[in-house]
Amino acid sequence: MTWTVTAEPHDSPVAAALWRAYYTEVSDRWYLLHEGRPTDPDELEREIAAATGADLAPPRGRLLVARYAGEPAGSAGVRLLDASTAELTRVFLYERMRGRGGAALLVRAAEDAARSLGAGRMVLDTRGDLVEARALYARLGYEETEPHNDAPYAEHWFGKRLSRPG
Fold it and tell me: Rounded to an integer, what distance in angstroms lies between the CA atom of residue 76 and that of residue 62?
C-alpha cells in the first residue's frame, strides 16, 4: 500500500471530515483528562464551525491530505505567520492509519509547502497530553522553544529551521 499527500481545499468534504475527527479526538482527550467527560456535543459543534480553516487556503496557507491506498487518512495544515515563518497545525491521522509512516510523511510535506510559501522556519504548538505528537516533532528535528503564541491550550512550542532543498 502506498501513501500520497496532496493539497486539498480547506472546505472540501474530505477536509471537513478530517477536521471533525481531529477536533473531536483532541477535544475529547482534553476533557476526559481534565474533567472526566467527553466534549459537550453543542460545544463541539460550535468550535468545529468557528474554525473554518480559511487560514489554510492559498496564497498564505495550505491544507494537505494524506491518502493511504487512495483513502483519506490524515491531514496537516500550514499557514504563514509572517514572511519567513510558517505554523504547522492540524496534524492528524485516523487512528486506524497510525503506525504506518503517514505522520512523518505529512509533516515533511508540510515543510515543503512552507518552503514553497517562502518560509525558512516552521513553528507549532501542542499540549502536554499529546505525547505522541511531541515525540514525532522531536524525532523530525523540532526543538522546544519559547511560546510564539498565546493559544489557550498550548503547553509546548516547537520550532525548526527549514533548509532549502538541494
Answer: 8
